[in-house]
UniProtKB/TrEMBL annotation:
InterPro entries: R3H_dom (IPR001374), R3H_dom_sf (IPR036867), R3H_sperm-antigen (IPR034068), SPAG7 (IPR017330)
Sequence ranges of Basic and acidic residues compositional bias: 100-114
Organism (species): Pomatostomus ruficeps (Chestnut-crowned babbler)
Pfam families (UniProt xref): R3H (PF01424)
Superkingdom of origin organism: Eukaryota
Gene it is expressed from: Spag7
Lineage of the organism: Eukaryota, Metazoa, Chordata, Craniata, Vertebrata
Region of interest (Disordered), residue spans: 100-140
Protein name (database record): SPAG7 protein
Amino acid sequence: APEQAARMKKLQEQEKRQKVEFRKRMEQEVSQFIQATGEPRRRFQPMNKIERSILHDVAEVAGLTSFSFGDDEDSRYVMVFKKEFAPSDEELDAYRRGEEWDPARAEERRRLRELAAQQEEAELESGPAPPGPPNDYKDKYRHLIGSDAAKAAARTMEANKAYGCVPVANKRDTRSIEEAMNEIRAKKRLRQAEDE
């Protein structure tokens, strides 16, 4: 156990030394990058997660912008950008897709997107409105009754002065309520007498 603990301590010290050396090397490369006037960005070799985090930290301390790109852990790399040449969203998307950034091609894509948006807007303005749900019952049934059928019917309709009152001449049954009830009771008694 003491030998294993000593070996572990030695390995940890060795890793710590390697990290310190790596950090110094990255600080030198970043300072060279800052001093290089014609270089707006620098791509570093693929590295592991710890090395990438060290490089991101060094770039942040130096006042630079840094991003990691790549799909799997073995091929992920870091790109460092100077602040005045910070990447656009389109540029970052190109790097994420694994493509090289081409400003001329990106400008062409942007122009095509603007043209498509303008055409779509023109079609919306000039074309008929898409059919949607009607928001009024009159609109909903317009195809059945027309637009002025209900208005014409409303004009010709007159109020019935005797509304709710049926004249005696129109009644089929001229008996009073008492007479009708007496007849119903008599039929009921007759049925009961037949059943007994």
